[in-house]
Amino acid sequence: MWLPAFIRKIVNSKFAELTVVLQEKLNIEHLKTMYDGDLSKVYARIEIVDPRKARPAQRKLFFALCNDIQSWAGAPMKDFLKDYFYTAYSIENDGAEISLADNTSNSVSDANRLLDIVVDFVFEWNVPIKESYELLPKNENWFLYQCCKHRECFECGRHADIHHVETIGMGGNRLKVDHTKRRVMALCREHHREIEQIGRSKFSAKYKLPVNGIKLDVETLKKIGVKGNYREEAENVRE
């Protein structure tokens, strides 16, 4: 079940302790049926929401992506796409509505969830994006993840290699490396060579992009063809 709430208190420690206040009444009887009557440890998922009003830049990106999808499809379907993605958002968020109009009550976090749905569609169907590429949130981990998953350069969109942020070293055997413990990013051959030639700091300054990379799980690494030694990770999953 999904319930709106706000965090009243945060205690800073090794593991943050939160005091959460629900904004709707909790159905205790229903909760008991989920946990066989034992409420000594109830699991929940916390999402930290950006409460600011959805930004014009998010609206601009949404419609730029829709324009690129329309051009790819070869048919006038801008209104259809808007309704399609708004409906998909509603389905994924328990019937909640979304609007990017100037007078919207939706938050930055709401708009980001909508954009995630559109970006998923773009990568899944390999939609060529020209108008919207420069607007994509390249500092967002989800975008970086999708670039790696679909092997598209996060700087230019061309077919990419998987670049390790921390170099493995000359003579290192990649087949013996657990790549889940190393940060990676997707870069085409041209940008891959460039970052290795000029270094991370200069590359980041030149393209105004973060170059910290992300960590990928075993399943994703295997799907994109990154071979390595994943036995330790597999054993941790089984445990």
Automatic annotation (TrEMBL):
Pfam families per UniProt: HNHc_6
InterPro entries referenced in this protein's UniProt entry, alphabetically: HNHc_6 (IPR041242)
Lineage top rank: taxon: Bacteria
The protein's name: HNH nuclease domain-containing protein
Organism: Ligilactobacillus acidipiscis DSM 15836
